[in-house]
Hints:
Chain A: It comes from Ensifer adhaerens. The complex is a heterodimer of chains A (436) and B (276). By secondary structure, chain A is an alpha/beta fold. Chain A has 19 helices and 10 strands. In chain A, the strands form 2 sheets. In chain A, strands 1, 2, 3, 6, 7, 8, 9 and 10 form an 8-stranded mixed β-sheet that branches. A two-stranded antiparallel sheet of chain A has the order 4-5. The longest helix of chain A has 19 residues, at 3-21. Chain A is globular. The relative contact order of chain B is 0.14.
Amino acid sequence: MNLRTFLLGTCSAVALSGLAQAETLTIATVNNGDMIRMQKLTDDFTSKNPDITLEWVTLEENVLRQRVTTDIATKGGQYDIMTIGTYEVPIWAKQGWLLPLDNLGADYDVDDLLPAIRSGLTIDGKLYAAPFYGESSMVMYRKDLFEKAGLTMPDAPTWDFIAEAARKITDKNNEVYGICLRGKAGWGENMAFLTATANAFGARWFDENWKPQFDQPEWKNALDFYVKLMNDAGPPGASSNGFNENLSLFQTGKCGMWIDATVAASFVTNPKESTVADKVGFALAPDTGLGKRGNWLWAWNLAIPAGSQKVAAAEKFIAWATGKDYLKLVADKEGWANVPPGTRTSLYANPEYQKAAPFAKMTLDSINAADPKNPAVKPVPYVGVQFVAIPEFQGLGTAVGQQFSAALAGQMSVDDALASAQTLTEREMTKAGYIK
Amino acid sequence: MARNVSTRRKIVVTVVAWTIGILIFFPILWTFLTSFKTEAEAIASPPSLFFFDWTTENYHEVQSRSNYFLHFMNSVVVSFGSTLIGLIIAIPSAWAMAFSPTKRTKDVLMWMLSTKMMPSVGVLVPMYLLFRNTGLLDTRTGLVIVLTLINLPIIIWMLYTYFKEIPGEILEAARMDGASLSKEIIYVLTPMAIPGIASTLLLNIILAWNEAFWTLNLSAAKAAPLTAFIASYSSPEGLFYAKLSAASTMAIAPILILGWFSQKQLVRGLTFGAVK
């Protein structure tokens, strides 16, 4: 055996033993900007934990949801860490599908998590998922168009003001529309917006006995207001507009206002993508004076499926990815404006972050103003601001969303849309055993 | 005079054919063009067709973010593997049904096709459990098996149609010359049916390459083919159309090129039948 063979043999033996010891974590995640950034920064984690290697499965939100739900419901065990939304966490935790995150380490500082976000992820006093980034909704508006129309946007506008301003700004000949709102049917599309908005109008999905409330005057007010406003001041074809379509309209200067996820703030103020980057102002989601604002609450969270064989390594990763040091790491490498928002109180106290992100205060205020356990003016039996955290909601929300989208498109009247929403929800809830 | 009319007719037919061709190809061309735009140009309205700053930035980004080669190899193994195994099973069965039909042959054919009539998602959970219990989740073997089963009815139907057009007398003659069953299939039937088999092969490779339900749901990190690669670039929250277009172009390019090179076989097999 010559020296080269010997060395080669030794090297491969070392490599093989290294492989044998290494633990591989398979992480399923959504493909939004913050998550992609995290994948690029994982060298920091793997250099601190050389015995752990990471494998990523990055998928579009809806595909991911179907994929991880199948896997966890059948105990398929394909993933060691799953990225799930605030809608799934309470449902899955109750099913016993998730492990409580008890060992995130001494310096994790759970109390630093934003209370509104944390409360949505805590069931019976235990944290079942760690938030990676959080968002609410708010008003984004064009300061230049407001100035031209002689309007001043208050920090906390009412729906009446928004409607008046939208009608004033609208200039259909020049393709400028006062307000862009979601109209595309789907529980995560128009129903996220309309459910949250209905809260501000005093409406709710169900009363304390799970009876659907679409036959109540509050829903009629809310939907009537929305349809009329969109007909007067919205873009054409609004019933097929979702987040992306409105983002594109706003970025190309066609919307005076847009009420949507706070995460959009970093897109519309980015001069590389947006033609109106330096003209955007922010305000809280509007109310009607009843004590609730139409701002929702969402977070993407990391969770460990029950029955996982690699709990210790998974906890280590989650503590790294959602910890305070990670925020600093992103700031060092990519600047404070790119830090994942909406999870930690300390971030919003940081003056450097405040300077880099002009929308920081509005995001924080919006998140703090949302209360997932008490979302409506009247009492409700469910958790969730822009959704109802029951497994049936995905199907229900989309079916109701189709009625409301049809009302916006003018294919049916508001009364008919509400009546059929009421009938179909009552039928499904009776079938599912909520209504005895 | 007659010649004049025919020239005019030729021109009209050519123009119509080109128009339809371009219309059908337009979405792919648009995807291709968008992949060279910046994200801002990708959503610009009115959009620019050719006159924009061409950039390869999206391809760089996609390359650095994903392991294209792994997904590509998975796609190759899964689509070629499933089609070849499908052919090995389908040739004898189509032979049996074409040349020794029984009273129930038509029913068997219909029954096979009926498996294609159920929406896939209806059997997702049972399939997932089967795969979990047999350890086939996220393996190329598992995907090859499931795609073979899915495309088998189509392969058999196509081959059956081609085989039906081959005169049974030729096979009889071979038999009279003393050819055994396997020799008859391998040396007489298969060569005559080559155009049909080739177009079946190509069509099924394309179908398997583009299959996006089972390949997405039964794979995770290791066996994920190009369909999963595309799915990692479409996003309901955020406009990344240029990157998505770059990923799509990279995903369809191999199969598109394969299709171009084998156009002749494909068209011949699909339009003329086996021996005409």
